[in-house]
Design a protein that fits this description.
Layout: H1 4-34, H2 53-58, E1 66-70, H3 76-88, E2 91-95, E3 111-115, H4 125-133, E4 137-142, H5 146-151, H6 153-159, E5 161-170, E6 173-176, E7 186-189, E8 204-210, E9 214-221, E10 234-239, E11 246-249, H7 258-269, E12 273-278, E13 281-291, H8 297-304, H9 308-326, E14 332-336, H10 352-361, E15 365-369, H11 377-389, E16 399-402, H12 405-409, E17 420-423, E18 431-435, E19 438-442, E20 445-446, H13 452-464, E21 467-473, H14 475-478, H15 487-504, E22 510-511, H16 513-525, E23 527-533, E24 539-546, E25 552-558, E26 561-567, E27 569-575, E28 578-583, E29 587-594
Parallel strand pairs: 1-2, 1-3, 3-4, 4-11, 13-14, 13-21, 13-22, 14-15, 15-16, 16-17, 17-19, 20-21
Antiparallel strand pairs: 5-8, 6-7, 6-9, 9-10, 10-11, 12-25, 18-19, 23-24, 24-29, 25-28, 26-29, 27-28
Helix pairs in contact: 1-10, 7-13, 9-15
Length: about 600
């Protein structure tokens, strides 16, 4: 028999438990309803704060980083160089022909980048040594045709080419040596038939042999039982003979964003260290999920014996949670209210709170998808306004997706409070200000697709800018057109790719699209300068940052040195001799010491 005292204690305990459960639920709902946009009160830079080299030059400020490009600025190589200069905050001067050093229109340069495929080399080759003598590095971003190199001994001597085994050879694979990109060595060679579809790199090239004093960073691979590895075709190399330092790229790698990481590597290999800003944001976006319209219930019933709402809650969502938690993603769900504007189906937002809570539990967020069919963007925006203005409580979205940026911005009633827009446009940029207070972010990779070229691009972006956007597009799953659009098939692909390839290629922080936007704004606004000073017992690197908001990120690369002490920033190792710095002040001091038991890095294939 229970005494009154025990009965009261049990009753009190049950009441407390019930109250706590109810209170925590109320708190969660209140958080979902009112704090679903954590950035509303956060002061972040706008387009007017963006760093502008021209503005600095007009005010008499001498740039810390100066690059000369020789070639057509409008070419693919010229555009890659221009984008890279904006990323590292460097002043770029472009010439069709390299002027003599000291010419009144030229200034000191950190690097001379030459589009050797298109530039006229004959007239100014003698000038290059003058730039080298003044500490500028020379990079041949592309090479002239092998027949031109074969006929020009001075050019061969400059590039360190001692022989041309074949003007065209097809290699079995490509090897990227350790130290080229952040993330270590990579071998792109198909050893099993089932992986043959991954090989999409160009395997045909001239077969150059380089001289003693050269160092190879990327080579073509041949059968090592027939050919000596030291004689494999050179793709990217450095030659330091005859008191010069020249880098060369044999192929089209500088015609894409892969060139960003190579250019950063060239500067790093020519200096005691490398230190430059990165975004530190790797986002994963789930497109058109969830969808709050039953317009495609018939297809869902046929495929999953459920309507749209039940299928995405009971079948799709567990998979999304699984892949997100397994890989520590911070997912952004791009919510779709209604895709087919001609359908009579009416959006039902009853489960919006539920999905907001699920996203919050994954450290993610809700964004909005502006995809549509059956009418114009004006009708899509009217539906969006009607749906969200009639909710019982407001949701403050920052991140949006659209198939076309132009389609969205042509409506004067937009941007619906958009702070950052992701589109499928191929705008040949990673990110930029699309309007006065709206950034645009590119999709860099699709989760269901992986290839060797994508792997190399990811390594380049990890080395250069620390930004990526992984798209998980559920549109075809929700609006299937064939059996291959089945969720299980798609999920198997994305789970496998994300948990293996993309996870391995993700050294930076997983962020929502909104958080990526904030970091991009700070990245675009900041300027910096750094200095390396050798000491008797240790070396010192100092970094001064302006307009960084006391919250930005830098990548530091050292040559077999480790961070001993640091002030003004936190740090973490993200690769061999590579550190991610979280800068929290205007001035950073870094003490470097030679690491113990470091194996000397011998030049691969150096001869």
């Amino acid at each position: 028999m229970v005494s009154r005292r025990n009965f009261f204690a049990i009753f009190l305990m049950m009441f407390v438990v019930l109250f706590l459960c109810q209170f925590s639920q109320i708190m969660r709902e209140n958080m979902n309803r009112n704090n679903n946009d954590a950035y509303r009160s956060l002061e972040v830079p706008g387009s007017g704060d963006e760093w502008d080299m021209k503005r600095d030059l007009e005010s008499g400020v001498r740039p810390d980083r100066e690059i000369i490009f020789v070639g057509d600025p409008g070419s693919e190589v010229g555009q890659t160089v221009a984008k890279w200069c904006r990323l590292i905050k460097a002043d770029l001067s472009a010439y069709e022909e390299l002027p003599a050093y000291g010419f009144e229109n030229t200034r000191y340069a950190d690097a001379v980048l030459i589009d050797g495929e298109n530039a006229d080399l004959w007239g100014y080759l003698p000038y290059l040594k003058d730039y080298v003598k003044n500490d500028a590095i020379v990079v041949f971003c592309t090479l002239p045709d092998s027949s031109v190199i074969k006929q020009n001994k001075k050019l061969r001597d400059l590039l360190g080419i001692t022989g041309i085994s074949d003007e065209e050879v097809t290699v079995e694979g490509i090897r990227v040596f350790n130290g080229t990109f952040v993330g270590g060595e990579a071998v792109y060679k198909v050893n099993e038939e089932k992986y043959k579809d991954l090989q999409d790199l160009d395997l045909t090239m001239p077969w150059y042999i380089t001289a003693e004093g050269s160092k190879s960073y990327v080579v073509g691979m041949l059968d090592d039982e027939i050919y000596e590895r030291e004689s494999f075709p050179r793709i990217v190399w450095r030659y330091t003979g005859d008191n010069i330092k020249v880098f060369a790229v044999n192929g089209d790698y500088m015609k894409s964003d892969v060139g960003f990481g190579l250019l950063d590597m060239f500067l790093y290999e020519s200096s005691d260290y490398a230190l430059y800003p990165v975004v530190n944001a790797q986002s994963t976006m789930f497109l058109d999920a969830p969808c709050f319209s039953g317009e495609n219930d018939a297809a869902m019933q046929e495929n999953y014996s459920r309507n749209t709402s039940s299928a995405q809650r009971d079948i799709f969502l567990p998979g999304i949670i699984s892949v997100s938690t397994t890989n520590n993603l911070a997912p952004t769900f791009m919510v779709q209210t209604k895709y087919d504007l001609g359908s009579p189906a009416v959006p039902d937002m009853e489960e919006l709170d539920f999905f907001a809570e699920q996203a919050g539990g994954l450290s993610g967020e809700l964004g909005r998808s502006l995809r549509y069919t059956g009418a114009g963007i004006e009708d899509k925006i009217l539906i969006e306004r009607s749906v969200y203005e009639n909710l019982a409580h407001p949701y403050h979205f920052r991140a949006f997706y659209a198939d076309s940026m132009e389609d969205v911005l042509k409506d004067p009633e937009c941007p619906l409070g958009i702070k950052t827009l992701v589109t499928a446009d191929d705008l040949d940029e990673l990110f930029f200000y699309a309007s006065d207070d709206m950034t645009w972010q590119s999709i860099t990779f699709n989760a269901d697709k992986y290839s060797y070229s994508a792997d190399m691009l990811a390594r380049s972006l990890n080395t250069s800018v620390g930004y990526s956007m992984l798209s998980v597009d559920l549109h075809n799953v929700l609006w299937p057109e064939s059996e291959k659009d089945q969720w299980q098939l798609y999920f198997d692909d994305i789970f496998s790719n994300i948990s293996t390839y993309w996870k391995r290629l993700s050294p930076y922080q997983q962020t929502t699209v909104s958080e990526s936007d904030v970091r991009i704004r700070r990245f675009l606004a900041l300027d910096y300068s750094s200095e390396y000073v050798e000491g008797d017992s240790y070396d010192t690197v100092t970094l001064d940052v302006t307009n960084g908001g006391n919250d930005c990120y830098f990548l530091l690369r050292t040559h077999d040195q480790k961070i001993d002490r640091i002030a003004g920033a936190g740090f973490s190792a993200i690769g061999e001799d590579a550190y991610l710095l979280h800068v929290t002040g205007d001035h950073v001091t870094i003490i470097l010491n030679d690491s113990e038991n470091v194996l000397n890095y011998n030049s691969p294939f150096g001869r």
